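Consortium newsletter contribution from the modelling node. Members have asked for a concrete example of what our holo predictions look like. Here is one, prepared for the NAP complex that several groups have been discussing at recent meetings.
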Amino acid sequence: MELIKPLSIPATGTKLSPEQAMKLAISEAYKGATRVSPNPLVGAVVLDANGGFISCGHHEFYGGPHAEVNALKNLSSETLKGAHVFVTLEPCAHEGKTPSCAKMMAKLPLKKVTFGLIDPNPLVAGQGADILKNAGIEAEVFSSQNAEEEKEIKTQLEEVCEAFLWNFRKKKVFVALKMASSIDGQVALKSGESQWITGPQSREYVHYLRACYDAIVVGKGTIDFDNPSLNIRHPEIKKDNKVVVIDGEGELLYRFDELKLSQVHAAENIFWCVAEEAKERVDKTLSKLKKTPQIVYVKTNVGGDLDLEALLAQLYAKGLRSVMVEGGAMTASMFISSGLANRLYMFQAPIIMGSGGARSWTETVRISEMKNKIHIKNPRYLTFGNDFMITGTLS
Ligand SMILES: NC(=O)c1ccc[n+]([C@@H]2O[C@H](COP(=O)([O-])OP(=O)(O)OC[C@H]3O[C@@H](n4cnc5c(N)ncnc54)[C@H](OP(=O)(O)O)[C@@H]3O)[C@@H](O)[C@H]2O)c1
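And here is the predicted structure:
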């Protein structure tokens, strides 16, 4: 999730260029990554009348104060005279869980507010800026004299709240796909063994990623082979998460009570996706269980598989806004071949597993001409111990 190196907070008075200020606001925004969904990640930076750093803040948790409020709190009118605020998203014009940020800022002696993205809601886009302008404060969308730097910063601005933008623009669940592979692209042995491919640093980062999305999605095979807990085990994060299992025939449901999953999570946080046609059998199985997960009935496609687009629509209707697909091999492949993954996190370890006895994560993806190869857009590379991770967008 955190796609850029976190920037350190400068000393008070340090002169920042508009580009540096907006990059710092983006870095601040990521600090809310595990707690703000379904709200956007937002960061703000305040510079004094001379362009010197005064303070910064971010939207810390869903329902909590917005980034602008956190950045501006405790600053006197004297300090804010002629100040310039940089914020990654247009200040909100309306009252939601918290009061309007634009109205709050309109009362301050600011000179200028620069925001990264216009509010994606066409009904309110520009209204935050209008409130500020009517109060005599300059308000404009971020731009830079340096076209290349502007492009990079605008990409970062879209990335930092990509799930929120996707939800808003498409009314769909944002899908991240995480896999761990050898350098020859294998994710498990045919025997089912796959632990561990990557090292502890990568795995700790995956637990952070789990906290950044509303739910983890896995296929039936992973539950069967690994009996995973799929909870968040990270030294700095305490959070209950949701889990989605794709098991078209509901074959593993009879074992639900003994799965680690059912012992670790509240049953209502587990969504078990089965075919509409399997209802009768599933109902019988459920009647024999001590605890029952939420059952999500999904229509099937011509091949008899659950229609993943319909599955995501059902999850959206149940309030989920972002998921991270964690495998296994077949499930990852199906999300790629159906074009439903928005972001990829591919961890690669410096090992070779060979294609003879192992599984790839793109078994169902067929590319017959190079012009049809799938591009990972805006790729970024991070290292974790001996592993590296490539992340980028697919749609
Ligand atoms: N390296 C990694 O990052 C990683 C991560 C997770 C798991 N793994 C490994 O991957 C292996 C498991 O992979 P896998 O391919 O066997 O299993 P999987 O992807 O976990 O599950 C595949 C099964 O899920 C069901 N499924 C998935 N999509 C479906 C759809 N659209 N409609 C209906 N059913 C659907 C199907 O069950 P049916 O058989 O009922 O059709 C399918 O056979 C294990 O060895 C595990 O350790 C590796």
